[in-house]
């Protein structure tokens, strides 16, 4: 069986390692003759589609799960509607995660590290608050801080200071919820997800991409109800909307709008 893998991250690296350990062929989804990045993973132009292959967190441009299935190609994913793991709660994080789906195919039972990786990828907020079976908050915190120790000598202390800075950032109201706009702290963006999830902080950040003439509004840790409101109602006031995506049960969403680069 051949597996086509999307962009690189911690979970995908674990998936690749497992597949190679069990002797499966692994190739990367391509875009302009290079491995896709995570942002381009669903706009691949290679490899050639072959019945029996499994595409993991990637797909060719203009193909959805049903279209791939009609060609005899399976999908392992949890990011979009139609994916096997989409819209599943934190209590089912292992079954929902791409890593969990791969382990099921390989008949591999999860150990603690695999559970940590899957929970961090599928539902980071829940993992930090004892809502994922087999994942304890303090053990998970230690695992994540080890992950960040490559860039910081004392990542736990740094995250605590970042939280203090985030608390004095401007706030906006989304469906009655107080949301902190931490855009101005963008040079620390690698810590945003863990900081906000550990301290259960509702945040929004705005990313401007002048070359693509787009602006992305990303929110996380809001309630499922507020996420739906953000996607269906709040997004209408953000400008000329190009794309809206998210998962209420995973408590995140994003809106991409046109951007003229003037502000």
Structural description of this entry:
This protein is of the alpha/beta class and 263 residues long. It has 2 domains: 2-138, no CATH class; 162-258, no CATH class. The protein contains 10 helices and 12 strands. It has helices at 10-21, 65-70, 93-96, 98-106, 112-122, 124-127, 137-148, 155-166, 192-198, 224-232, and strands spanning 2-5, 25-28, 30-31, 34-35, 54-56, 74-76, 171-174, 177-181, 203-209, 214-220, 241-247, 252-258. The strands form 3 sheets. The protein has a 6-stranded mixed sheet with strand order 7-8-9-10-12-11, covered by helices on one side. β9 (203-209) and β10 (214-220) form a beta hairpin. The longest helix has 12 residues, at 10-21. The radius of gyration is 19 Å and the shape is globular.
User: What Rg is obtained from the alpha carbons, in whole angstroms?
Assistant: 19 Å
Mean pLDDT equals 95
First-to-last CA distance: 50 Å
Give, in order, the helices and strands: EHEEEEHEHHHHHHEEHEEHEE
Structural class of the secondary elements?
alpha/beta
Quick overview:
With 263 residues, this protein is an alpha/beta fold.
Features:
single chain; 263 residues; alpha/beta; 2 domains; 6-stranded mixed beta sheet; 4-stranded parallel beta sheet; 10 helices; 33% helix; globular
